[in-house]
Amino acid sequence: MSTPPVLSRIVLGYSPMIDRTRSAVAVRLTVYPEPRDAAPDAAGLLEAVATVWPAPAAQAETATQPAGAPAVGGSATPVVLNIVSEPWLRAVLASRPPLHLLLEVPAFMATQPDCAHTLRALKAAGHALMVKGRPAQELPPEVRSCFSHALADAQDEPPDPPGPPDGASGTAGRIAGRIAVVRGGVDTMADLNAAFACGAVATLGWPLDGRADGVGSAAADIAVVTELMQRVDREEPVERLEAVIRKDPQLAFRLIRHLNSAAYGLPVEVSTFRHALMLMGYGPLKRWLALLLVTAGRDPALRPAMFAAVRRGLLMEELVRATADEETRGEMFICGVFSLLDVMLGRSFDELFRSVPVPERVQQALVEETGPYHAALTLARALEQGVRSDILAAADGCFLSLGEVNGALLRALAAARELA
């Protein structure tokens, strides 16, 4: 993936949009210009976004219905664009952005006559729009109708449950009686559950404190994966690895399906576990098992953590792709993927790493918060939180430029979509 020049002039952060099933249905990409007064580059920004979320081939520029309504996410709106700069947002709104983006518009801008004209034109062309924040006064009906979603922060009053337009109150009522409300700033499972109880259709944020009691229904899956990881780490012969696989035939099926997918791109079809191991080798198999370990749980509350763990691993690998050898890249991937394993399995890293083999440098980062991988892990966490100053400080700590960090993030998000 090429690196668009605009990536050296912006700061990016990201978070998931989570629906009622606790699944991440879209990614919210937050954009800050750097420096703050940098001249807008709407075409460059949209080009960069399209490297990860290209417009569907069948999408017509003359669509007659909003691409993002009534669905929250899915293929129609895989990305929510949060541009934290009025000049940059105005430039994007004026540039006929792709229909599959869900664009956030601050409420204060929606009240401005020139912006309202642009919003009506976008609505007529089939664009999906989300108003952000509390309007100081009720929006005119012709402006209200431009928005399919409203974003309210967690500290605001609860969104109104779905109901008739007449008599609506609160943030949603100032916009439209039946608008789909999305809660922002959701940091805990309690926040997430409260948002859905009050009628929100989705949330934005990182509720990473959710976990099942113990490992629940995933215990058998995790035990087999852990045993296989131990044997792979010792590079035991294929016959002994096959003996473990026989305990869970679905595991072998998932591995073969993974290798036969278009994303892996093998020239021949894989039909047996023995064949899979011959083609993969121990290193790639260990990487795949690490990924499988963090996605083996079936508790819906763990889905946001799974989403974050996979992307952390891919991001940390991409941060060093140009400078590190294959072994280091693999360890960085495992470090990111395992960085939420304590939350997901409800056990400390010290306890987990007695049974799950990990490299010493990964243990240093996760157990001691030190070592050569800790700076990259700090940057990965900062990108999730989306705070501009924290991202810039963490990038400096890794001795990486903005272009390098943003390029790595977009490549990681693109790779994650391939895994889905």
Structure characteristics:
Hypothetical protein af1432, 20 helices, elongated, 8 strands, alpha/beta, 420 residues, TIM Barrel, 2 domains, 12% strand, 8-stranded mixed barrel
Describe what you observe in this structure.
By secondary structure, this protein is of the alpha/beta class. It has 2 domains: 5-205, Alpha-Beta Barrel (TIM Barrel), CATH 3.20.20.450; 216-419, Hypothetical protein af1432, CATH 1.10.3210. It is built from 20 helices and 8 strands. The protein has helices at 42-50, 86-93, 107-110, 113-125, 141-144, 170-173, 189-197, 219-233, 238-245, 249-260, 273-280, 282-293, 303-319, 326-338, 341-345, 349-352, 360-368, 374-385, 388-397, 402-419; strands at residues 10-18, 24-33, 79-83, 101-106, 128-132, 149-153, 180-186, 202-205. Strands 1-2-3-4-5-6-7-8 form an 8-stranded mixed barrel, surrounded by 7 helices.
